[in-house]
Amino acid sequence: MEDKVSESQTGNVTESDIFVKESDETSEEYKTVETEEFIEETNEVDSSTKPQTQAKEAQGLEDQEALRQLDIYLTDITKALNAPAMVTTTRDNDRIIFDLDTDKKGILIGHHGKTLNALQYLAQVYVHRIAKNKLSIEVNVGDYRQKRQEVLQKLAEQTAEKVKHTKRAAFLEPMPAFERKQIHSVLSKNKDITTHSEGDEPYRYLVVEPVKKSY
């Protein structure tokens, strides 16, 4: 039976996605809580799901062999997470997309896609370590990334409205660079709003704040 994906896993926009800065103390509290949650999920994938198959650790592998090793790596991780998946690979311009087909989508996606993003982060680090060339990796489960893209559009618009109304900075939850880039692209057209990223990968997050007007 297929594992159901909750609203938080599909990425629907909620109040928890947007954090309005009340004070420096509030900001630090948010950053600590969200970062700790993300670290726990990432570490769970990284430390407790060592692949059973011994993939090559040699550096400088050609693209095809590096991607084959990454396929093995992801397959073994999904088994360790008790959500075994069939891995298929496609190319989209300069990106290589690894789609994980499983009956337990919710496990591999996680809350707001954090488990999936952790998997993608690990996959990117792994392939950078073994591949001769620089490869851009995306890991997807079903149509999650497509739905998430629509949600990020709404999140960007709602955040902009909230910042304009409160005239205070808003901190979004940690997200991968490609998601931050999408939100930044949407808000770059808004002359009343400015955006920048803070923190270190993979816990880097976007700050949305009103433009300071000079008189």
From TrEMBL:
Domain (R3H): residue spans on this chain: 146-212
Ranges of Acidic residues composition bias in the record: 35-44
Biological process terms in GO annotation: cell wall organization; peptidoglycan biosynthetic process; regulation of cell shape
The keyword Ion transport belongs to this UniProt entry's keyword annotation: no
Bias kind Basic and acidic residues: ranges: 18-34
GO cellular component: a single term: cytoplasm
Biased composition (Polar residues): 45-56
Primary localisation category: cytoplasm
Alphabetized GO MF terms: RNA binding
PROSITE patterns xrefs: R3H
Family: Belongs to the KhpB RNA-binding protein family.
Family annotation (NCBIfam families): Jag_EloR
Domain-level remarks: Has an N-terminal Jag-N domain and 2 RNA-binding domains (KH and R3H).
Name of protein: RNA-binding protein KhpB
